[in-house]
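Self-study notes.
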Amino acid sequence: MPLYTYPDSLTGVWVGQVSRFDYRMRLQLGLAGESVAAGFPSPAEEYLEKTLDLNEYLVPRPEATFFVRVSGDSMIGASIHHGDILVVDRSQTPRPGNVIIALVDGEFTVKRLRKTPTGLELAPENPDFTPIPLSEETEFQVWGVVLHVVHKV
């Protein structure tokens, strides 16, 4: 029996500020042909390579994607901050090293799935927090693998 499982449905369970992806909305913006180390690319038309649809870039599998807003600062070392929005894919198989959304003993959390000599754990990316060891006794479900972080700078 696998240590982690996905729930059958996202409905019927309360989660703060979770949104489903709406694939009908398209937003194509100009993508500069050259990358920049710092500064802003020239807005001149000749430097635009093509258009970029953020939906396609951020959401490869719309039917399996949801968004969730972060609360807390246990993942600041992974550049995930309080108030950020995570793009989460439920179709991905979680692997050690992935940042995941999990339900642990009735509470949702975002942590990095890590393999240790004694098993798996959910590791924070902040030294002020302790890892959560996973065992057969732990009530644990993976809700998805975090693909992207959206935050204001």
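Second protein, same conventions, sequence then structure:
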Amino acid sequence: MPHYFRDLSRTACRLVLFALLPLIAVAGLATPARAVIELDITKGQIEPMPIAITNFVGSGEEAGRYGVDIAAVVSADLKRSGLFRPLPREAFIETVSNFDQAPRFGDWRIIQAQALVTGRVTVLPDGRLRAEFRLWDVYAQQQMVGLQFVTTPRNWRRIGHLIADAVYERLTGEKGYFDTRIVFIDESGPKDKRVKRLALMDQDGENLRYLSDGQSLVLTPRFSPNSQEITYVSYAGGRPRVYLYNIETGQREIVGVFPTMTFAPRFSPDGQHVILSLQQGGNSDIYTMDLRSRETRQLTDTPSIETAPSYSPDGRQVTFESDREGSQQIYVMNADGSGQQRISAGRGRYSTPVWSPRGDLIAFTKLLNGRFLIGVMRPDGTGERILTEGFHNEGPTWAPNGRVIMFFRDTPGERGGPRLWTVDLTGYNEQQVPTPNFASDPSWSALLK
């Protein structure tokens, strides 16, 4: 018996368990075959892999519509990564109508597909959706991975993102980044009277939600490690305060009322602290606050402007910007404030350093010769590389797999304004992220749970 039929027998047993779960459930459909095709994404620009993604077979008319929509999300995610080239469906020779049968691999080789994704959607008696998919190595004629998901219909887009993540991981060996969210500042209205609202959306620009009404200025939103909370600065009441916002409950909480200006709060990797800068007189220093005891601890103490702190993934170090030596530069210190040392050494002014989730790089903004650049360097300051430049680029934030950086790019002129963009760590595949209005200061969540 072919292995893909044996796999489905296991699936039928596991579905009984997943029917009890209220949210998305995931299970393996198959014992993956050894990967024959793969993408090495560590060596810079590569030729996108041609991949065929069929419309998922539906158990009825409604399921069929979901099948088409889910397949479209998978295709769009993989295409935006720049690593895959979904083939046009007009070129398909085989129409996959039976998910339980192996594909006619010869038909897919003719159109030069190296990988093939097939799927099936079923509307369960309780109204939930069950989506199954398989990734095939066309030339080895092997199934590489098979998974199923059970969820409510409103989560159908997340199924698409989860399948895209699974395909990405199986073919690249790296975690995907599609089942994630972006929090950012939505900007609308005339340039001299911009209304700024806190906004949340999926990484592809869908499912937009506004988290503030625009009555008060909001700045620097940042996700908690579990992606369930956001910290940000709001001028509600006429003075800046640091807030926590719970995405699920909608509850807001003031972290602390500080007597001075506060800037750029960001969570520690364990979610137990917030690190931020407080301004007194003409300078600012970096502090941490314990979110349980609300006790603060000062980490820097110099007559200069020190801000934009960001923890390393292990929480042992912090990178920040300071003008203590006359111009903005990037520094690194231990989490207790000891061992402060400058790491940026090139020409220009450096700002907004953000530590990669992988720990191997720090992203930054650099102002040089009137141009704003987004780049990366190692935590010891070596290996500086510029990924992109423009009239005004700023605010880098990392995808959870540390392979893509999002930032905002402002454009000059009366009609100009900021937009969100992404760029690969290799400096290629620069793409604008769709938003309904101007958008700035993005923060990328971890993979959703």
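Instructor comment on the second fold: The chain has four helices and 31 strands.
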